[in-house]
Amino acid sequence: MPFNVSGRKPRLLALTLGLAGLIATPAHAAGNIANPYDCAPQPTLATSFATWNDYGQYTPVPNAGLEAGATGWTLSGGASVVPGNEPWKIGGAWHRNALQLPGGSSAVTAPLCIDETYPHFRLFARDTGSAKGALKIEVLYFDTKGKIVNTKPYDYKPASTSWQPTGLVGINVFTSKTTVVAAPVAFRFTPTTKDASFQIDDVYVDPRARG
Known about the structure:
- The protein is mainly beta.
- The chain contains one helix and 16 strands.
- The radius of gyration is 16 Å and the shape is globular.
């Protein structure tokens, strides 16, 4: 699957990554983030979560609401695009789709180019399986050796079975040792048990550092 990012011009990047490379990355791998494709952030800003008293400016990942089907996403293990949108439709009143994640499945978003002023992201999720399960969320990025590695997972456990926005999930990929000013990242979602099942929708990133 091509790893596409937006730079100063839209480009299809030379490195092609297999599905196994995205799904089976090393857990908690350590490595300094790199920008092998010289991407530059190009956010489209809106106060998408103002309904929940979050007035930060957010930008969607490519195809954030799955309205173009699975275009740009990498799905495995039975993950699929299904009818049924988060009810607030922050991406548009015409939106109709969401992503179903049964136990044993995994999904990776299309990449988004960010810099260190992108500290968090949020999305909408709905628990459709066992209450004991959680949704594991990881940030994927390239290290300086060209490998795809992931951040320490964050387990999201919703308080109900209805649609709701998640809290702020930290991105945490830029450090004092980082030598690039921007880099592509993607987000991976995986139910933690075979009985767990989730629907997710509208993955948005906050490109403004908060004081």
